[in-house]
């Protein structure tokens, strides 16, 4: 599998499971994502799970569904807590498969 992507089990990302990997200069992490059933509008849509150094599957972040304030279109964001990693999900380059989502990193905005 290509790094910095998540392959979901269906195009309906909000309810699909997935597997993927995130690679940066400081960490390399294989991830599993599992949907979260919640009526709380602030809850993540998915739990992000990674492996501990001893191989145990542990929750390390989440995926949230957001709405673009300008266009009203929905998009997904991903965080990995221990690495202060933030990213958006988007259609992978040169792909027509919506179940394959690229992990597009972004950093925190600079304080004014």
UniProtKB/TrEMBL annotation:
It comes from the Bacteria. This is DUF736 domain-containing protein.
């Amino acid at each position: 599998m290509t790094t910095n992507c998540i392959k979901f089990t269906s195009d309906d990302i909000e309810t699909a499971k997935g597997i993927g990997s995130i690679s940066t200069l400081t960490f390399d992490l294989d991830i599993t994502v599992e949907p979260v059933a919640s009526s709380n509008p602030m809850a993540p849509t998915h739990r992000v799970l990674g492996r501990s150094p001893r191989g145990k599957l542990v929750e390390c972040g989440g995926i949230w569904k957001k709405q673009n304030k300008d266009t009203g279109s929905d998009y997904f964001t991903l965080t990995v807590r221990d690495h202060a990693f933030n990213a958006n999900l988007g259609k992978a380059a040169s792909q027509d498969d919506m179940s394959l989502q690229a992990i597009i990193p972004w950093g925190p905005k600079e304080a004014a």
